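Troubleshooting: if your tokenizer reports a length mismatch, compare your output against this known-good record of 185 residues.
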Amino acid sequence: MRIILTASLLGLAVTASTLAMAEPIKVGMITTLSGGGAGLGVDVRDGFMLALKQSGNTEITVVTEDDAMKPEIAVQIADKMVQGEKVDILTGIIWSNLAMAVVPNVVGQDIVYLSPNAGPSPLAGAKCDKNYFNVAWQNDNLHEGMGNYANTAGVKKALHPGPELSRRHRRADRLQALLQGRTGG
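Known-good structure output:
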């Protein structure tokens, strides 16, 4: 996971560094740097900063803030970065509920958002915005693949265990929509 994430961020940073040769770019990074989910946020930040350092480009400025895994804080930070810091690009959000709170407003202001991890289904497909780029995956991908495999393998019943979270229900719904048998969990 860490290697895939770092490779994605390296590609993003190299692309950004190529663009930056034309003019300076300011990147706003909103990520989880404290609490239980901090490990992923720290890895995203550190991988991104390492890729920028290795690119050798000094025309990219990164402003980083901790969202504390709270949507209301992420929204405040995004507003501050877009309105006050005048960032060109936002990135860094790990959690889909935070992305759903931040991304629609950000892309609505014609700011590019690059998602290193969060891939909420409502931001994909028909509602996808020209300024939203998910460099990881869309949340339903694994469950769609599993549903297709289960159909091919003739699976009639599936159990989808997990914590009582809305994203688990969305994933179970997606799996059930694809699975011709029954699901539970």
